[in-house]
Design a protein that fits this description.
about 325 residues; mainly beta; Jelly Rolls; five-stranded antiparallel β-sheet
């Protein structure tokens, strides 16, 4: 098995004289001594950075090579049935697709699995799956089946709105003396994982030379009060003029959530005299399906024995993590 770029390549060779073929010689015709060398390329487009969870094709690229018993390539068009099973032995397939393949002069062909019979949204749910292959003219599935490893499970993740933005490209929100919504965002996740929230805006203070401040935070519940340590404060105890000033505001928060749709809010309130306006608010939610092990820190100081921090792979006891 080898891994190339973003493709998982599984090299398998199956002799059709083996396994069940010995008991089905009457079925075997043209492909009696056929050897099927499989190059299974499970291609999933993995976007970088902010594009990681963008829409990806719901197909798998399958490449194979048809040869006869002497290793000579077979170039005739051949009808092949592909099946996906929940176990390596079960007789009932979860997904079935039949395609005619057209090998080149070397016997190599490529097909997009899922292009004829689309994959269901629940097929790649994290449970083990096996791929079965049958040359239709033979009528007997080649054994053993090939286990489908991790790469295709990224299809489900890729189709999730893993990054959700809510923003006001223009306009503003005047803050009152009680906690209120400035902006909200909703995100749907397919499995338990971490949701990282980032909110920002400009806070415009005016109308007084006395104390004028505001509290900003990210929360799931409307209203309420400031939550330590998740809020930030902006503003001053006094101003040179009633024109006040414009302050950049940034706040973040991390939650661990179960599968489903979750709504979050950037909220705030005004304290003191004068007025406060939240200008150009923006709230982003990013889904991460798991923690990724060790977090490397800066190069250790000589004699410092702690070079890294281990991140737990199990869900935290507290359903939310603050930063």
């Amino acid at each position: 098995m080898s891994k190339t770029g973003n493709s998982l390549v599984l090299d398998r060779e199956v002799d059709m004289n083996n396994s069940q073929m010995n008991g089905d010689k009457g079925v075997v015709k043209m492909y009696k001594l056929l050897r099927f060398t499989v190059l299974l390329a499970l291609v999933v487009v993995l976007m970088a950075s902010a594009q990681l969870f963008a829409q990806a094709p719901n197909t798998l690229l399958y490449q194979g090579k048809l040869t006869d018993s002497d290793g000579a390539p077979i170039t005739d068009s051949t009808v092949v049935r592909f099946c996906i099973y929940r176990t390596p032995e079960t007789e009932t397939a979860t997904w079935i697709e039949t395609q005619k393949v057209g090998p080149n002069a070397q016997g190599i062909f490529s097909v997009e699995l899922g292009s004829v019979t689309p994959f269901s949204s629940t097929l790649f749910d994290g449970d083990p799956l096996w791929l079965g292959i049958t040359v239709v003219t033979e009528g007997v599935e080649m054994l053993p089946r090939q286990q489908i490893l991790s790469a295709p499970y990224a299809i489900n993740t890729a189709n999730v709105p893993g990054i959700a933005n809510a923003r006001r490209s223009s306009g503003s929100v005047a803050l009152g003396s009680t906690m209120q919504d400035i902006e909200t965002v909703s995100i749907t996740i397919p499995a338990p994982g971490y949701i990282v929230l980032e909110g920002r805006c400009f806070a415009n203070f005016s109308g007084t030379t006395s104390s004028n401040t505001a509290i900003f935070q990210i929360d799931q519940t409307a209203g309420g009060s400031s939550q330590v340590p998740y809020y930030v404060m902006a503003g001053l105890g006094s101003y040179a003029t009633t024109a006040g000033g414009l302050f950049p505001v940034y706040v973040n928060r991390v939650y661990y959530k179960a599968a489903g749709t979750h709504t979050f809010r950037l909220e705030g309130y005004h304290g003191g005299s004068g007025s406060v306006i939240a200008v150009l608010p923006w709230l982003t939610a990013t889904y991460y399906p798991k923690s990724y092990g060790t977090v490397e820190m800066a190069p250790p100081v000589p004699g410092d024995e702690e070079a890294a921090i281990e991140v737990a792979e199990t869900p935290p006891a507290n359903p939310e993590l603050g930063e």
